[in-house]
Design brief:
About 35% of the residues lie in helices and about 25% in strands. It is built from 4 helices and 9 strands; from the N terminus they run αββαββαβββαββ. The strands form 3 sheets. Strands 1-2-7-8-9 form a 5-stranded mixed beta sheet, sandwiched between helices. A two-stranded antiparallel ribbon has the order 3-4.
Length: about 170
């Protein structure tokens, strides 16, 4: 494999941890930005509540000006929420979930998530790649985010799925 098993396991453990520390499970999206030796790691929680289920089932395809392709609306909207928080916090200290947070991103960014979180990670990874960041996406059991392929290059994407899991083959 061109990626180490230990890297796959490390990012899978981040995904597990975000469920454990994912804040109030009522949050529409929960994420964390970890800084590790010059790499920013964005970890996105998967489906944990009714709002997340609504994101999962909003399968309409909408045009995305940042990538030039159609994206799953529910996943795109969740990704937009996270990127607005990150972008706002980079220019000023934002209040997120009742806490003052800043999320500066290094040039190298890893984006990881499970299920819904993996789908959102793919979209955020594409957007950051388009901004010139060195991006790697690690997704676990992630559904598809589009019916098209991004033109002009994509970030490196390590996609882990079980063949018996129907979610990665949907929508």
């Amino acid at each position: 494999l061109p990626v180490t098993v230990s890297a796959l396991v490390e990012h899978a453990e981040y995904c597990k941890a975000i469920y454990d520390i994912g804040g109030n499970q009522k949050d529409e999206v929960a994420f964390e930005v970890i800084q590790d030796n010059g790499i920013s790691i964005i970890v996105i929680r998967g489906t944990a509540n009714e709002a997340n289920v609504l994101s999962d089932i909003d399968i309409r395809l909408v045009s995305d000006a940042r990538t030039g392709i159609r994206l799953h609306k529910g996943f795109r909207d969740a990704a937009t929420t996270i990127m607005q928080i990150i972008d706002t916090s980079m220019t000023s200290r934002g209040i997120v979930q009742g806490q003052t947070r800043t999320y500066p991103l290094e040039h190298t960014v890893h984006v990881t998530g499970h299920s819904l979180g993996g789908a959102v990670a793919q979209i955020i990874g594409m957007w950051l790649h388009k901004r010139g960041k060195n991006v790697q996406v690690f997704s676990y059991g992630s559904p598809k985010v589009s019916d098209q392929v991004l033109s002009g290059g994509q970030p490196t994407h390590w996609r882990v799925v079980r063949l018996s899991d129907p979610i990665p083959m949907s929508p």
